[in-house]
Design brief:
The complex is a heterodimer. In chain A, 2% of the residues lie in helices and 57% in strands. Chain A is mainly beta. The radius of gyration of chain A is 23 Å and the shape is globular. Chain B is flat, with a radius of gyration of 16 Å. Classes of the chains: A mainly beta, B mainly alpha.
């Protein structure tokens, strides 16, 4: 379940629709390892301060088949262990007094075998895979794919269809697609994962579906530049509350749309290209976000370096409160030192639903030794409410995320 | 910015960009065909990032809409 967010994002429609049929077979492998930074002592009320350690293995195959077809296969194996936020409470002071200006997080515990092993945390294993095939004809293509994801307490299957068509002497390409996923959520071992959601526990047949559509168009602007604009819509229904957060009850449906713009510009003097990508996101839970990514792909003869930067900023969900424990039943001011917490139908203290912004700085090196490319990459990610422009109406969440990711990979073409 | 403002700016930008397009002959599209000019030059890295960001942020989607090639070939 901790990994289940990924299952929701299963690529029912591939993000890598190619206008042209591949002319060679590519086999790829990536190994990624990253650890989320431990929380500060003052941010944790109880439980382990350490967070997730994650390791990912990826394999991929893309090959032409006959004169008009291509076939793609991806596999991913992911392990995750560590502690995660269970709920947030105000810092307790002497005399049974709460410091409401200092929220502290109660963690889920630690991994089995650690010094806090009696407080059992997360220890999960996820496997997912997809198969895709594309048919190419003069002036366009049609693609379809099937995907699955399975972990200890989550299963997902999805499929997608997409098509694209070239116009104006192949200077304009219009693409459209549809995807659908059906997910099942369950408690794998009630004894192992006892720190559960007591506000909206999983029903026996918990699940959710995700239906999405997209349309996009790209256009050549000149010999060195091309632009793309797209729109997508997604409708998600089912049990959307987090099964491992104590006070978390979310609406059982959400609709979201995105607008995205991308621009690529080749600079001959540096033998490289600039990448600019922007996405606007809006959903019916009240979250809006802006994402801006910039990367430079610079080539030397057998070397490519890719510095990159990404900014992400979002507003809070309408039912977010860092003290969601008080929103479940409500506490009138007269009974709570003058602090009023009205009862809400939906509530969550998930940091991912708060208002915050994040920066990611990446650097990748590709050593090109035909027919093999060797890849080394690193990314530093840091999130904080203070990165948002302007003042916030919310207290800063004590479990904001930082991590450093390392990736090693190899691609073989033949 | 309001949603309406963002939509208007996006559509106006797209219209202006497309209006300013000149025909680019096929023989001048060599730079556009280079791998590093792709929308997603490293699909495995893109899939990994999408997976990570989706697990740690409230927003997702949009990357799916990045279909469409450069029409170089």
């Amino acid at each position: 379940m901790a990994l289940s967010a990924a299952a929701v994002a299963l690529p029912g429609v591939s993000g890598n629709v190619q206008a042209a049929m591949p002319t060679e077979t590519t086999i790829g492998y990536r190994y990624t390892s990253y650890s989320e930074s431990s929380l500060g002592a003052g941010d944790v009320a109880s439980g382990d301060r350490g967070r997730y350690d994650i390791k990912v293995n990826q394999w991929s195959l893309l090959t032409p088949v006959g004169a008009n077809w291509s076939f793609a296969l991806t596999l991913q194996d992911e392990t995750l262990s560590g502690a995660s936020p269970w709920y947030v409470q105000p810092k307790s002071l002497e005399g049974n007094v709460n410091d409401y200006n200092t929220p502290q997080v109660v963690m889920s515990g630690a991994s089995p075998g650690s010094e806090d092993g009696n407080l059992i945390g997360i220890d999960e294993h996820r496997t997912d895979g997809s198969v895709a095939s594309t048919y190419y004809y003069n002036g366009g293509s049609i693609s379809g794919n099937l995907a699955f994801s399975t972990e200890d307490d989550y299963e997902s299957v999805s499929f997608g269809l997409s098509t694209e068509r070239e116009f104006d002497n192949k200077q304009t390409v219009v693409a459209a697609g549809f995807s659908y996923s059906d997910d099942s959520i369950f408690y794998e071992d009630i004894n192992r994962t006892y720190r559960l959601n007591t506000s909206d526990p999983l029903p026996d047949d918990a699940g959710k579906t995700n239906t999405s559509f997209f349309v996009s168009a790209s256009r050549i602007l000149g010999p060195n530049s091309v632009v793309l604009g797209g729109f997508s819509f997604a409708s998600i229904e089912g049990h959307l509350s987090d099964a491992y957060k104590k006070f978390d009850k979310r609406p059982n449906e959400k609709e979201a749309y995105t607008i995205n713009l991308s621009y690529r510009h080749y600079v001959k003097s540096i033998k490289g290209s600039w990448h600019f990508d922007y996405r606007y996101y809006d959903d019916t839970w009240g979250v809006t976000s802006n994402t801006l990514s910039v990367a430079l792909y610079k080539n030397w003869e057998k070397l490519q370096i890719v510095p990159s930067m990404r900014y992400y900023g979002q507003t809070a969900a309408s039912f977010y409160d860092v003290y969601s424990l008080y929103r479940k039943d409500g506490i009138p001011a007269a009974e709570n030192n003058g602090v009023d917490y009205a009862k809400w139908n939906y509530f969550s203290d998930d940091a991912r639903l708060s208002d915050y912004a994040a920066f990611a700085f990446g650097f990748k090196v590709v050593f090109k030794q035909k027919p093999v490319d060797w890849i080394l990459g690193v990314e530093y990610y840091t999130a904080d409410e203070e990165f948002l422009p302007g003042n916030s109406d919310y207290l800063a969440h004590p479990a904001m995320l930082q991590y450093t990711r390392f990736t090693f990979g190899v691609d073989h073409r033949f | 910015m309001t949603k309406r403002t963002i939509c208007v700016v996006a559509l106006a930008s797209a219209a202006l960009l497309l209006q300013g397009c000149a025909d680019v002959p096929v023989y001048k599209r060599g730079n556009l065909a280079k791998p590093e000019m792709g929308w997603s030059p490293d699909p495995m890295e893109a899939a990994l990032k999408k997976h990570i960001y989706h697990a740690k942020e409230a927003s997702s989607g949009g990357a799916e809409a990045a279909g469409g090639g450069c029409g170089c070939n």
